[in-house]
Design a protein that fits this description.
Elements: E1 2-7, H1 19-22, H2 27-40, E2 44-49, H3 53-62, E3 67-71, H4 80-89, E4 93-97, E5 119-122, H5 127-141
Parallel strand pairs: 1-2, 1-3, 3-4, 4-5
Helix pairs in contact: 2-5, 3-4
Bound molecules: 1,3,4-trihydroxy-5-OXO-cyclohexanecarboxylic acid.
1,3,4-trihydroxy-5-OXO-cyclohexanecarboxylic acid is lined by residues 10, 71, 73-74, 76, 97-99, 101, 108.
Catalytic activity: 3-dehydroquinate = 3-dehydroshikimate + H2O
EC number: 4.2.1.10
Subunit structure: Homododecamer.
């Protein structure tokens, strides 16, 4: 079984992008932590980060994962296309945000993903990805 981690636009800048909001750890650290958690549980793991909507959509279309953990970043608030990609493949998902999107500009409170997610984690920094991985592993093992 496999978990696919999807990170949206600007998350490649993690560590140097608004560190007060997003912390000082970079994307590689985050991804390697998640990969380790998957491997410890005997699960395969894939990751994509892209700044291009179509690349995220294509990765979702072509994945053989049983579970998706996604931080759609700014596409959270804009992308019907990415939402439809996930609905199209019918793979369960957890939505993660590093910052507390509800404590920021009002436009960040709306998500095109939350009503379709098993759960939503926000505001806990990159630790949120660890919690999401734990939940995904539990979900897969329960099957
Ligand atoms: C984010 C929150 C979004 O509003 C923002 O556009 C991001 C990152 C987060 O992880 O906190 O790029 O998804």
């Amino acid at each position: 079984a496999k978990v696919l981690l999807v990170n949206g636009p600007n998350l490649n800048l993690l560590g140097r992008r608004e560190p007060g909001l997003y912390g000082s750890d970079n994307l590689d650290t985050l991804v390697e932590n998640a990969r380790q958690l998957a491997q410890q549980s005997g699960l395969a793991f894939d990751h994509i980060q892209s700044n291009a909507e179509y690349q995220l959509i294509d990765a979702i279309h072509s994945t053989d994962a049983q579970f998706i953990i996604i931080n759609p970043a700014a596409f959270t608030h804009t992308s019907v296309a990415l939402r439809d990609a996930i609905l199209g493949v019918n793979i369960p998902l957890i939505e993660v945000h590093i910052s507390n999107v509800h404590a920021r500009e009002p436009f960040r409170s709306h998500s095109y993903f939350s009503d379709k997610a098993q759960g939503v984690i926000c505001g806990l920094g990159i630790q949120g990805y660890e919690f999401a991985m734990q939940a995904a592993i539990k979900h897969i093992k329960a099957k």
